[in-house]
TrEMBL record:
It comes from the Eukaryota. One of its GO terms (cellular component) is endoplasmic reticulum membrane. It comes from Cyprinus carpio (Common carp). It is found in: Endoplasmic reticulum membrane. It is a single-pass type II membrane protein. Belongs to the DIPK family. The chain crosses the membrane at residues 21-41. Residues 17-175 form the FAM69 N-terminal domain. This is Divergent protein kinase domain 1C. The lineage of its organism: Eukaryota, Metazoa, Chordata, Craniata, Vertebrata. Signal peptide: none annotated. Keywords: Disulfide bond, Endoplasmic reticulum, Membrane, Signal-anchor, Transmembrane, Transmembrane helix.
Length: 445
């Protein structure tokens, strides 16, 4: 009897010990997960949280470095001395990128920088070499020829684009290179070099005078640059673009030059035509085709003249760099998808093809035109012959293999252009206006 009781107590003790040990392990595991969760939240959210105080602190630091002669730019005097740049609000911080809304002499702008601090950018090696060689320090100046050479290398490396006669450096930084007697100060060189390390700045600045379908850079101070403020599209709303905001006051018609107030529905075919014009620009008007690998409403905006503008070009690549990105190892076609830019897998070589399979237009038709030009939004007009034909053309455009059937894609694009022009003619009752617009913008190449 006693032995049985002792055995039972011993067994009970073992079970209690095991349960206690299990509880200790579970408690330790829960604590570890909780602490790691806090660290993750702090590193990925709180440390990069968009706050007004932090934004103002960043701009104050920029101005302090401007006063010290470390950095400069055509925006610095108004930002740091004259008070003509007024901070409005923080838009977002993401992976170190800082974006803020402000006004410059009453004009809304967006201030951007890929990194928060000026010192975080790689220094220009030429300046460091001069310092190590015993240069004269803060007053050392370099010739425009040196700047052209190093900036050209940076452009080629950043964009995968050979600079030519139509891509000149003065578009990157004022007009000084046109004045042979002028030289750059160290602050100017350091600021230019920090800007050139930001792919979006370089991309927008290179294309600034070549197309009106990219956001305009208005100025810079150190590593921060200002672009025009435009309201982006939004995928969560079926209307995609807030065209109603453009109807609040009359503006010159982009087609006739006359004052005219249009409804949001009237604007849709005109904005769609601007998308097609942008596609033609990007495919044919540069030394290499330009590929958009992240096509979504948030990356585009509409100016008041109804021009479509690419406002986020972090995932835009010219043909040489696009080929380098696509040509990777693979075992299936799924391995060859780089966001909206895809190619085919050559299974005999286990290598993705360097040529893109789809096209900018095909993805725009799929992700923007198809939900936008839909029976739901068209309402009572959805069943009209022109609208039905347009919906069918959009559907065909979205399903075409853009890279493999280029001839068919050109035919569909021409069909889309013709239908959109007819819709404009139908809305305005002005046949000449539509024909003039068609001849001016959409002659097939």
């Amino acid at each position: 009897m006693r032995r049985s009781l002792r055995g039972a107590l011993r067994c009970l003790g073992v079970k209690v010990c095991r349960r206690s040990a299990l509880l200790v392990v579970l408690l330790w595991l829960a604590s570890w997960l909780f602490l790691n969760g806090l660290v993750f939240v702090h590193r990925n959210m709180l440390s990069d949280f968009c706050t007004e105080d932090k934004s103002k602190e960043i701009l104050q630091r920029v101005c302090a470095e401007y006063q010290q002669g470390v950095l400069t730019g055509d925006l610095c005097e108004d930002l740091c001395v004259a008070g003509r740049v007024e901070y409005k609000r923080c838009l977002y911080y993401e992976n170190g990128k800082k974006v803020m809304a402000a006004s410059w002499r009453g004009v809304p702008i967006v201030l951007k920088s890929k990194l928060e601090n000026f010192s975080s950018y790689e220094a220009l090696a030429l300046l460091e070499y001069q310092d190590a060689a015993g240069g004269t320090g803060g007053e050392e100046e370099l010739s425009p020829l040196d700047v052209v050479f190093y900036a050209t290398l940076e452009i080629k490396n950043s964009l995968g684009l050979e600079t030519g006669t139509n891509l000149t450096l003065p578009r990157l930084w004022g007009q000084k290179l046109k004045e042979n007697e002028r030289t750059y100060s160290r602050a100017e060189l350091a600021s230019l070099w920090a800007l050139l390390q930001q792919e979006e700045y370089t991309f927008l600045r290179v294309l600034q005078d070549l197309t009106h379908h990219v956001a305009k850079i208005l100025g810079s101070c150190g590593h921060f640059y200002a672009v025009e403020y435009l309201v982006a599209g939004h995928a969560w709303d079926q209307h995609i673009f807030s065209l109603e905001e453009l109807t609040l006051s009359p503006s010159p018609s982009p087609w006739s030059g006359q004052e005219k107030t249009m409804t949001a529905r009237d604007m849709v075919p005109r904005v769609a035509l601007s998308f097609l014009e942008m596609v033609e620009h990007f495919e044919n008007d540069f030394s290499h085709s330009l590929h958009l690998c992240d096509i979504k409403p948030e990356n585009f905006a509409i100016r008041k003249d109804l021009t479509v503008v690419a406002i986020d070009v972090d995932m835009a690549f010219f043909e040489p760099k696009m080929r380098d990105i696509l040509e990777q190892n693979c075992t299936s076609d799924n391995d060859c998808n780089f966001f909206d830019c895809i190619s085919k897998c050559d299974k005999t070589k286990n290598r993705c093809g360097p040529k893109r399979k789809n096209s900018n237009l095909q993805v725009i038709c799929e992700k923007i035109f198809r939900p936008w030009i839909s029976p739901t939004l068209l309402g009572a007009k959805a069943g009209l012959p022109l609208q039905v034909a347009l919906q069918r053309a959009v559907q065909e455009c979205a399903e075409i293999d853009g890279g493999g059937d280029a001839k068919r894609m050109r035919a569909v694009r021409k069909q889309l252009q013709g239908l959109l022009v007819e819709l404009i003619q139908e809305d305005t009752g002005n046949q000449g206006e539509g024909q003039e617009h068609k001849m001016r913008h959409f002659i097939s190449k």
